[in-house]
Amino acid sequence: MPARPAALVAAELESSADALSAEVAVVAPELLLHRETDAAPVMDDAVEVVEAEAVVDEAVAVDEAVVEDEVVEEVVQPEPRAPRSKRRPVRATAPESPAATPAEVEVALSVQGLTKYFGGSPAVDGIDLVVAPGSFFGIVGPNGAGKTTTLSMITGLLRPDDGVVRVFGLDVWQNATLAKRKIGVLPDRLRLFDRLTGAEFLYHAGALRGLDRATIAQRAADLSAAFGLEHSLHRLVSDYSAGMTKKIAIAAAMIHAPRLLVLDEPFESVDPVSAAVVIGVLRRFVDAGGTVILSSHSMELTERVCDGVAIIADGRVLAEGRMDEVLEGRSLEERFVELAGGEAAVKGMEWLQNFSD
């Protein structure tokens, strides 16, 4: 049998090693041990060919040693796996929400099956809501109905146990960064940075939203003028009245020009004059194409301002839709009491007519 050139044998060895290295680079860590045992026959076969033909010179031997070193460096021993009893349980990943349809993209807010439990009891029990763009939408309900919990999950402040929330087609939890850019929020019982002046507070809010200094200055001036705060921007927020505090907080929620404003009890502890100013600004926002969702205990104000409403009790939607459709010819207060069961709670208290004296 004629001797094969040493260079040809070395080239075959390098080709085999390159192929093996490529396999090792893409193999899963738990399979590396198997790959290491598979690598040995490749090297053994090569050595047998070299010994049988007796054509390996010193250069080939050096090349072979280099190839073996490269293969060994690629094959990394995985760390020993912990016994099954000591492994941490694997949490099941939540399934991705289905992609939004073109119709959902045209909806300002879409809520499907929204659920949240506290202590084993549902605070929000499978709520469904649809709010059209350019709407002034109100959410009303008794104390403990789940309004604040619902709004917190809608705005990404509280993670739901189940359900999907989309803002203009963007899933609030799957696309949080993009979705939250479209939302302005006034949470219930918001704690402000009240040791800042009004001007500093608005600058802080704009900077957090990534606005440049010139844009913040222009928008802060416009918002303070609209809310009647231009002469109070030099004062500390801690010195503001309840109405002024609400107005500066709403201004901060609007400074990045969101498409959706979610306001939890924006008129609580607010005097009628300040409430009228806030309503005027919000109506201008809606007329320009924005969408406002607010919760309130004021039935008369909600009925007067909003064009859509949802009545919530015990974490469920009792009625939802356009204002005239929900009211059915009655006032919002009458409809609310009827659905929430307020009249039934008053019955059976005839003993109050028998005075103790």
From TrEMBL:
CDD domains, per database record: ABC_DR_subfamily_A
Key words, A-Z: Antibiotic resistance, ATP-binding, Nucleotide-binding, Transport
Keyword ATP-binding (UniProt): yes
GO molecular function term, any single one: ATP binding
InterPro entries to which the protein is assigned, alphabetical: AAA+_ATPase, ABC_transporter-like_ATP-bd, ABC_transporter_ATP-binding, P-loop_NTPase
Residue intervals of the ABC transporter domain: 109-339
Membrane topology: Peripheral membrane protein
Subcellular location(s) per record: Cell membrane
Main location per the UniProt record: membrane
Keyword ATP-binding in annotation: yes
PANTHER family: ABC TRANSPORTER ATP-BINDING PROTEIN, DOXORUBICIN RESISTANCE ATP-BINDING PROTEIN DRRA
Name of the protein this chain belongs to: ABC transporter ATP-binding protein
Organism: Protaetiibacter mangrovi
Lineage: Bacteria, Bacillati, Actinomycetota, Actinomycetes, Micrococcales
